[in-house]
């Protein structure tokens, strides 16, 4: 099913008698998702409103991410949160998975750039929340609740997003030769000073990666200061911007795991993760390749690990019972017939 | 202001309820009417009501104990940070227990590697920054009340401030909370990067005006302090030109940390009060940029170039600490200055920046129609307006006229694509206007969230939602959803 309007989408949901699997381009599905009858949002596409001077764009959920990025680029702008580009990926899928790239260390996640949403809940009701202004505390922030909810509360039909100017100047810098553990203190040093680092990651073959963006003099100044600060870890060399997309690995030999932690907890986790594919967000995000079907044996830490590819979904540690109850109750209120949770 | 009639059965059991609370948390209960007076209102002092009792717990466990008792007794609870809410968010009712966070000010953890700080929720906003500024860090959200307001209240209202154009508001800087639900159960929300598996419960708790639970501890993101900052003051012969200049600066790809706007009535009052040396003009902008000296020079040169296109009466770039202080002095004194010359009502609607000329024109027209003067001061970078409607509180009917005019201005904000409140919250003040921005279905969806966290609607119950719409839930007569 592929509705062309929000009203049609609402009607489909009201009338369905089988569980649905809501997808944009289907490019961000995780294990166990996508089992119900396919409901594609790609028919709900197009920019509703774009005001470059207000740094806002309102776009229908099924709009291709690539198309939206092109429209913004034509006005010298971009999405602030840097979602990774996948063939067929839609902005609705990006929002539903709260897909947030390396720039998160400076500007926040997808949810932080989401100003408003329209969505159809499991009762087939069209709900609007938030708006298209940057500051808004009118009522509850259901926008955040929808961000990253992976289609379990309703189907996004429209999203208002904050845009950002494309930086006039950008430079990717590297400290090659550092292993993952040695990279952590260097990343922390880079993020603990006034350098406005807009990307801080690590790749096995490239070492520490850092990015500076902005006006030319400003980038030059910060590069000099950052080079001084990181001198104890080696000399900062200019590297390749094409490396940044690799900080979001998509495949693994076994199962791909996404581990969120505090950077101070990362060393202990790294010791239990034999095959680390990448680190991002200054060490707060670790991508690991683990034998298929196995759960990693991780020490206690404050974050969580999620299996992103493989046969079955798994998240460690188990969600606290009270939090799980709140999650389930909210889902039941918005989706009383469990249409959106067929497999997930 | 209509408030629900207090539950007489609860008021009649006052002595027994107070005794039970006192037994559980002996040194924390206030019931002497002389002492509870201080809790009759928050900073929206036009509306007040003595609470049933006040409890000042010391920690999460005590908050949980008090909430459990109130839950069992069916007593409404009004959470209170420092009482600086401008929308009546902490205003009590006669049948409600106020839980104040003023004793919960402990600094629990500073972690510079993870760039976070954990505090009890009663700690003031400014003292969070003070705890880490020696190590070169700061906490970004900076509401004007930052000297007094509590982090717990900031989270309840999702507070912002002058610098949010670059750094975001509370929700963008909050990593986690300890939350006590109405039944006394304690839950940890958020995690590293603010992320947790499942739904973003932290995101919906932030800004929920103390209706979903009481935040007792908070983990906040701290940021490296910039090398320096410098403001410029730009004077214009019309508000429209000033507004157009704001749009042009943002359009050019420069992201200043703050762009503040003041119009002539506001400038005049401020000058008489603080004598900051502002130019005689129709409107002025204060634009602040950050970085090292060469970085600031580079940004300022661009801003100057853009501003020249709008033929400013004056472009005054700060050359010293003292000049910077004086440029900000007038803006920071604006509210106090207006209070000196008149009673005023401060509105808080937010609009798309592109609608600025239209809204300023609309406000001027309403000012003529209602016969009340308006002074405008606001965060222009993010469209958060603060029209101050001047009135005489002693003149019969003038407060009502002022409120009516305020409602018209907020409706105008919504009509041009904005919202009722950008940072103050809905509270009791804008409750009945919510239907201007939301349909009944939209409001029902929000109320479902409260059902999940607080099924009996005991936490801060008569706030945020129009009274008629929330009545079935507050009175326990709603169908189980």
Walk me through the structure.
The complex is a heterodimer of chains A (344) and B (481). Chain A is an alpha+beta fold. Chain A folds into three domains: 6-165, Uridine Diphospho-n-acetylenolpyruvylglucosamine Reductase, domain 3; 169-247, Alpha-Beta Plaits (2-Layer Sandwich), CATH 3.30.70; 255-316, no CATH class. Helix content of chain A is 24%, strand content 27%. In chain A, strands 3, 4, 5, 6, 7 and 8 form a six-stranded antiparallel sheet that branches. In chain A, strands 14-15-13-16-17 form a five-stranded antiparallel sheet, with no helix packed on it. Chain B contains 17 helices and 18 strands. At the A-B interface, strand 7, helix 6, helix 8 and helix 10 of A face strand 9, helix 8, helix 9, helix 11 and helix 16 of B.
Structural class of chain B: alpha+beta
Task: Output the strand order for the largest sheet of chain B.
Answer: 15-12-14-13-17-18-16
Multimeric state: heterodimer
Mean pLDDT of chain B: 94
Q: What descriptors fit this protein?
A:
heterodimer, A: 344 residues, alpha+beta, Uridine Diphospho-n-acetylenolpyruvylglucosamine Reductase, domain 3, Alpha-Beta Plaits, 3 domains, five-stranded antiparallel beta sheet, 10 helices, 24% helix, 27% strand, B: 481 residues, seven-stranded antiparallel beta sheet, 17 helices, 18 strands, 37% helix, globular
SSE layout:
The complex is a heterodimer of chains A (344) and B (481).
Chain A: H1 6-15, E1 20-23, E2 37-40, E3 47-51, E4 56-60, H2 65-73, E5 77-79, H3 91-96, H4 104-107, H5 110-113, E6 114-121, E7 126-130, H6 142-146, E8 154-165, E9 169-175, H7 180-191, E10 199-203, E11 207-214, H8 216-229, E12 237-238, E13 255-260, H9 266-270, E14 275-280, E15 285-290, E16 304-307, E17 315-316, H10 321-334
Parallel strand pairs in A: 1-2
Antiparallel strand pairs in A: 3-4, 4-8, 5-8, 6-7, 6-8, 9-11, 9-12, 10-11, 13-15, 13-16, 14-15, 16-17
Chain B: H1 8-12, H2 14-24, E1 29-30, H3 33-36, E2 53-55, H4 60-73, E3 77-80, E4 97-100, E5 107-111, E6 116-120, H5 125-132, E7 137-138, H6 151-157, H7 164-167, E8 174-180, E9 186-190, H8 201-205, E10 214-221, E11 223-224, E12 229-236, H9 239-251, E13 258-263, H10 264-274, E14 283-290, H11 293-308, E15 314-317, H12 321-341, E16 343-346, H13 356-370, E17 374-379, E18 387-391, H14 398-415, H15 434-437, H16 440-453, H17 467-474
Parallel strand pairs in B: 2-4, 3-4
Antiparallel strand pairs in B: 1-2, 5-6, 6-10, 7-11, 8-9, 8-10, 12-14, 12-15, 13-14, 13-17, 16-18, 17-18
Helix pairs in contact in B: 2-4, 10-12, 13-14
């Amino acid at each position: 099913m592929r509705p062309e309007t929000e009203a049609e989408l609402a009607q489909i949901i009201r009338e369905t008698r089988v569980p649905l699997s809501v997808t944009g381009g289907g490019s961000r599905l995780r294990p166990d998702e996508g089992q119900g009858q396919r409901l594609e949002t790609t028919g709900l596409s197009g920019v509703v409103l774009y005001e470059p001077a207000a740094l806002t764009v309102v776009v229908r959920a099924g709009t291709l991410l690539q198309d939206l990025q092109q429209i913004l680029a034509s006005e010298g702008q971009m999405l602030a949160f840097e979602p990774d580009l996948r063939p067929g990926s839609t902005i609705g899928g990006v929002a539903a998975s709260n897909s947030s790239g390396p720039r998160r260390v400076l500007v926040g996640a997808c949810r932080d750039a989401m100003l408003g949403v329209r969505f159809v809940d499991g009762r087939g009701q069209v709900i609007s929340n938030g708006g298209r202004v940057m500051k808004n505390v009118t009522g509850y922030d259901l926008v955040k609740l929808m961000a990253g909810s992976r289609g379990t509360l309703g189907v996004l039909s429209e999203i208002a997003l904050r845009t950002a100017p494309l930086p006039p100047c950008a430079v990717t810098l590297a400290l090659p030769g550092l292993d993952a553990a040695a990279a952590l203190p260097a990343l922390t040093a880079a993020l603990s000073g006034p350098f406005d680092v807009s990307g801080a990651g690590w790749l096995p073959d490239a070492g520490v990666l850092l990015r500076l963006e902005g006006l030319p003099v400003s980038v030059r100044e910060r590069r000099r200061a950052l080079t001084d600060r990181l001198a104890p870890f080696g000399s900062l060399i200019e590297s390749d911007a094409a490396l940044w997309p690799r900080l979001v690995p998509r495949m693994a030999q076994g199962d791909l795991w996404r581990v969120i932690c505090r950077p101070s907890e990362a060393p202990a986790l790294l010791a239990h993760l034999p095959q680390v594919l990448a680190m991002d967000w200054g060490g707060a995000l670790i991508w690991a390749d683990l034998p298929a079907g196995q759960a990693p044996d991780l020490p206690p830490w404050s974050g969580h690990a999620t299996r992103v590819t493989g046969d079955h979904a798994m998240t460690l540690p188990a969600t606290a019972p009270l939090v799980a109850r709140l999650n389930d109750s909210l889902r039941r209120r918005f989706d009383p017939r469990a249409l959106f949770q067929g497999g997930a | 202001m209509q408030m629900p009639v207090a539950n007489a059965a609860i008021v009649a059991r006052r002595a027994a309820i107070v005794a039970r609370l006192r037994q559980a948390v002996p040194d924390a209960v206030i019931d002497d009417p002389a002492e509870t007076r201080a809790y009759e209102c928050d900073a929206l002092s036009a509306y007040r009501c003595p609470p049933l009792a006040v409890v000042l717990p010391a920690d999460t466990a005590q908050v949980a104990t008090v909430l459990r008792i109130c839950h069992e007794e069916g007593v409404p609870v009004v959470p209170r940070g420092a009482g600086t809410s401008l929308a009546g968010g902490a205003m009590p009712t006669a049948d409600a227990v106020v839980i104040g966070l003023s004793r919960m000010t402990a600094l629990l953890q500073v972690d510079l590697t993870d760039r976070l700080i954990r505090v009890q929720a009663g700690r003031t906003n400014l003292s969070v920054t003070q705890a880490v500024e020696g190590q070169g860090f700061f906490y970004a959200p900076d509401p004007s009340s930052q000297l007094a307001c509590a982090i717990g209240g900031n989270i309840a209202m999702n507070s912002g401030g002058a610098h949010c154009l670059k750094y975001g508001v509370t929700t963008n800087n909050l990593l986690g909370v300890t939350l006590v639900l109405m039944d006394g159960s304690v839950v940890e929300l958020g995690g590293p990067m603010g992320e947790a598996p499942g739904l973003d419960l932290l995101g919906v708790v932030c800004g929920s005006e103390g209706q979903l639970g009481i935040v007792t501890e908070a983990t906040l993101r701290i940021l490296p302090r910039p090398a320096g900052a410098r403001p410029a003051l730009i004077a214009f012969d019309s508000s429209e030109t000033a507004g157009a200049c704001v749009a042009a600066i943002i359009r050019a790809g420069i992201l200043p940390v703050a762009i503040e706007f003041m119009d002539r009535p506001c400038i005049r009052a401020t000058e008489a009060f603080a004598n900051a040396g502002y130019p005689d003009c129709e409107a002025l902008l204060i634009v602040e940029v950050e970085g090292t000296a060469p970085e600031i020079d580079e940004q300022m040169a661009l801003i100057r170039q853009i501003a020249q296109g709008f033929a400013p009466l004056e472009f005054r770039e700060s050359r010293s600490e003292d000049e910077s202080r004086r440029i900000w002095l007038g803006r920071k004194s604006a509210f106090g200055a207006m209070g000196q010359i008149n009673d005023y009502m401060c509105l808080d609607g937010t609009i798309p920046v592109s609608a600025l000329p239209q809204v300023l024109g609309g406000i001027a027209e309403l000012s003529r129609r209602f016969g009340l003067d308006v002074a405008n001061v606001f965060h222009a970078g993010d469209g958060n307006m603060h029209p101050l409607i001047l009135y005489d509180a002693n003149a019969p009917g003038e407060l009502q006229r002022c409120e009516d005019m305020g409602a018209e201005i907020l409706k105008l904000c919504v009509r041009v694509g904005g919202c009722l409140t950008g940072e103050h919250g809905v509270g009791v003040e804008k409750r009945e206007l919510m239907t201007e921005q939301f349909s009944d279905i939209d409001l029902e969806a929000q109320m479902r969230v409260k059902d999940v966290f607080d099924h009996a609607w005991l936490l801060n119950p008569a706030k945020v939602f129009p009274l008629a719409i929330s009545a079935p839930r507050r009175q326990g007569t709603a169908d189980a959803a």
